[in-house]
Amino acid sequence: xxxxxxxxxxxxxxxxxxxxxxxxxxxxxxxxxxxxxxxxxxxxxxxxxxxxxxxxxxxxxxxxxxxxxxxxxxxxxxxxxxxxxxxxxxxxxxxxxxxxxxxxxxxxxxxxxxxxxxxxxxxxxxxxxxxxxxxxxxxxxxxxxxxxxxxxxxxxxxxxxxxxxxxxxxxxxxxxxxxx
Length: 180
Hints:
Residues 1-36 form the signal peptide. The chain has 180 residues and is mainly beta. It is built from 2 helices and 11 strands; from the N terminus they run H-H-E-E-E-E-E-E-E-E-E-E-E. The radius of gyration is 20 Å and the shape is elongated.
């Protein structure tokens, strides 16, 4: 059980709704951090539905560049209709951050897939990629049934940590590919 005596001491004897919500959010953050492999002193992105707000996610695109990490989805070669190809998804933390080795990092292609695209794997887990403390790389396989420009997309679920805090995040990515 998590106790916050200094916080409780500062609350009025009959706490307001906002005070109770703040205490609940702090407890949820501590529990979320513990489940993700962070210590109790590390901060984490709050769970959905809590009163504490995370930074807004960047717009869907091929690259996300935040203060703590860079994520990129890029084409890896030529693509032919009916043949399997792949795009690379990379996560590179910025100093002093590193990839949280206790977090179940994964990439989920968009579901349902747009017409004409099939993803052979519904989820790429840590063991499907190359992950160390400085970089994560996933090769996302796909098959496009017809020639022309198309978009490959999905969501990367990840966590980066520093000595001061851990950040859990998910980012939607989308890359354009030309299929012959």
